[in-house]
């Protein structure tokens, strides 16, 4: 059976340009974009650890905290905080220019604590329901994404996507397939 060469058209996750991905895992159009995305992730990590340090240094007993500390503690923006103060929704005191203090206990009633980024390695394994209504047949995948059957099978094996055969049809979960090909520009 002749198989067309598989081409994955993707949007670069950094600059948004469409490019031909060499592998299913390619996310960026160029080394430059890949490097910039990496720098961005590193900067975000650094920022997160700075915020954690600030939160750790807020004394439990002190109710009035700085805007800086409130941002770190609740993950809300400075604009949000100043808006709440202007509206009188949060008790605040002004002990000088740039020295606004706001009530931690009041903010706690309004906002959850800033969430840590989710640790992917601790994500629970998905439970698969391979009911036909939650699945595509291989033919449907091939038609939807413009990829020939044998390539679809190869990807299913490579990415350990579960399948189920009913009669003449092989089914694969929609969720996994859509995720796998989510950046493929449908032709
Ligand atoms: Zn790019």
From TrEMBL:
Question: Can you tell which superkingdom this protein's organism belongs to?
Answer: Bacteria
Q: Where is the Helix-turn-helix domain?
A: 64-110
Q: Which Pfam family, just one, is annotated for this protein?
A: HTH_17
What Gene3D superfamilies would the database entry show? Homeodomain-like (1.10.10.60)
Citing just one GO molecular function, the answer is: DNA binding
Output the InterPro entries linked to this UniProt entry. HTH_17, SinI_DNA-bd
Record's protein name: Helix-turn-helix domain-containing protein
Species of the source: Hallella mizrahii
Output the lineage of the source organism.
Bacteria, Pseudomonadati, Bacteroidota, Bacteroidia, Bacteroidales
